[in-house]
Amino acid sequence: MALELEDIKGLQEGKALKSTTRRQILEYLKQHGRATVEQIARMAGITSMGVRRHLLALENADLVKMEPERRPMGRPTHVYELTESAEALFPQNYHQLALQLLDSIAELEGEEKVTQLFERRKQKLLAAYADRMRGKDLAGRVVAMTQIMTENGYMADWKVIEGGYAIVEHNCAIARVAQSYTQACACELEFIQELLGPTVDVTRERHIASGDICCAYVVREKPVLAIKTRRRKARGSKIEDRG
Length: 243
What we know:
Elements: H1 5-12, H2 20-32, E1 34-35, H3 37-44, H4 48-60, E2 64-69, E3 77-82, H5 84-87, H6 94-109, H7 111-129, H8 138-151, E4 156-161, E5 164-169, H9 175-180, H10 183-196, E6 200-206, E7 215-221, H11 224-242
Antiparallel strand pairs: 1-3, 2-3, 4-5, 5-7, 6-7
Helix pairs in contact: 3-4, 6-7, 7-10
């Protein structure tokens, strides 16, 4: 039995669940840390069998986990606690903290320092994900990129289009920050471009921060002539440096 998608969405938006008992269970575990089936049953006013059905649904949704707990006498008992995934369902204010820190840096050091921070973040991401691109053709790199963006909260998917591919992000994981600091979106575009490699062109066609419902990137192979010209220029600059 899986927790319905509408239920999870309701939790994330702070709305009532179809099953208010599941919300009660999650809130109880949040307040008490861990609990047995019997403790949850007393709290919810339902049978232990009913609690187990709800806990199974929450386990399948990766919102609670079961662990054995040793007692002074008798067999270990099973206790339930929230998973790391469940913590994201409760109110958090990370974006406000991030904005306050960025505002303070801008006031103390200037906008250029903020730009440097986003650039440093991009370089770390490129280093972290470089191995996932090695040995793949463009299609494989697009699939890997989509998976990376989804892992980071962007709800991305991809599709084949005429002459290339489209990567579509249905959620902006840093929307609040991006609204105040355009460097965030600029670095994201550069990250996608650089991770996919120098033989491709990436253009952003839609932009959540500009009012669109998604961010959409078009990915196409560069013409062979353009690639050769770029390589010749790079070799020429190296020769000048030696001179």
